[in-house]
Every structure is written in structure tokens, then in C-alpha cells.
């Protein structure tokens, strides 16, 4: 490990930041209710959004998909994907509610494009009345 050249001592070791991000993504809990033995919510959330904005999560997901596909004996490029969408009722923000005429649901629509191995390629949340 490299010795620090100066500055303030780190409050949390860097190894706790990916652990905290993984905990939030797997459990679906809010950032502010992370376990006390993990890094506090501000630091992991900051690292998560920085990596999301510069596209690192998408690159990591694509690389994982290629490695898993090659390990199963498939071609490195995606050959097929399965679209899925559903409308979800909500009453949180009245300005964003719309009617999905086909499903008679007030709320939002979730749209996901999934690889045949189960990896999420793209995901989007829209108003419910937007056509698939």
C-alpha cells in the first residue's frame, strides 16, 4: 500500500465504498439507511453517481455480458434481447401521472431490455401512457 503524501486522513477505507454500493443495489434500500459498519451514505452515493455519469457502469455491465457469453460458448456480441414493459401505479407526484389506456393504470411505465442470459442492457422509466 502506498504511503499518503499529505492531506486529511481518510474517514473510510476505499474498500468499503464498493461494498456499500453493492449493498444498496442488492437490497434496494435507501442510501441513508446503510448498515453502520459500511461507509456513510454521502461518500458511496457520490462515487456511484460519478461512475454513472461517465458511463463506467454501462462499460462494466457490457464487459460482464461479453465474459459470461464467451464462458457459455456464445459469440461476444449480443445476438438477441428481450424487451419488457409494465405500468406501475403511483400517487407520489401528481404532475407525472398519466393514464395507460390499455392497462387502466395511473402511474409510470417501466421499460427494460434484457439479454437472453438475464443481464439488463437498458432500462427506462416513463409516464404510463407512452406507447411501447
Can you lay out the helices and strands and say which pair or pack?
Blueprint lengths: L15 H12 L14 H12 L2 H16 L9 E9 L8 E3 L4 E11 L4 E8 L5
Antiparallel strand pairs: 1-3, 2-3, 3-4
Helix pairs in contact: 1-2
Walk me through the structure.
By secondary structure, the protein is α+β, with helices and mostly antiparallel strands. Helix 1 (16-27) crosses helix 2. A hairpin with a 4-residue loop joins strand 3 and strand 4 (120-127). It has a domain at 10-54. The protein has helices at 16-27, 42-53, 56-71, and strands spanning 81-89, 98-100, 105-115, 120-127. Strands 1, 2, 3 and 4 form a 4-stranded antiparallel beta sheet that branches. The mean pLDDT is 77.
Amino acid at each position: 500500500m502506498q504511503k499518503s503524501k499529505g492531506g486529511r486522513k481518510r474517514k473510510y477505507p476505499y474498500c468499503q465504498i464498493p461494498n456499500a454500493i453493492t449493498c444498496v443495489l442488492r437490497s434496494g434500500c435507501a442510501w441513508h439507511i446503510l448498515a453502520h459498519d459500511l461507509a456513510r451514505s454521502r461518500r458511496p452515493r457520490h462515487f456511484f453517481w460519478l461512475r454513472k455519469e461517465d458511463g463506467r457502469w454501462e462499460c462494466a455491465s457490457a464487459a460482464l455480458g461479453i465474459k459470461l457469453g464467451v464462458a457459455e460458448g456464445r459469440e461476444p456480441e449480443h445476438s438477441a434481447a428481450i424487451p419488457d414493459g409494465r405500468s406501475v401505479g403511483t400517487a407520489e407526484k401528481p404532475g407525472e401521472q398519466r393514464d395507460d389506456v390499455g392497462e387502466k393504470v395511473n402511474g409510470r411505465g417501466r421499460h427494460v431490455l434484457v439479454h437472453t442470459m438475464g443481464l439488463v442492457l437498458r432500462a427506462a422509466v416513463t409516464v404510463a401512457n407512452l406507447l411501447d
